Amino acid sequence: MSNRLPPLTALRAFDAAARHMSFAKAAAELNVTPAALSFQIKSLEEHLGAPLFRRLNRAVELTEAGTALSLGAAEGFQTLATAWRAAQRTQDTQTLTVTAGPAFTAKWLAPRLYEFAQAHPEVELRFAASLNRMDLMRDNVDVAIRFGTNPAPELYDLPLAEEWVMPVMTPALAAKYPTVESLHHAPIIFDDSINFLDSAVGWAAWFTAMGAPFSPTLGPRFSQADHAIDAALAGVGVVLGRRALVVKDLDEGRLVAPFPTALSTGARFSFLCLKGMENRPQIAVFRDWILEEIEKTAHITRSLTILDASDS
Question: pTM of this prediction?
Answer without folding.
Answer: 0.71
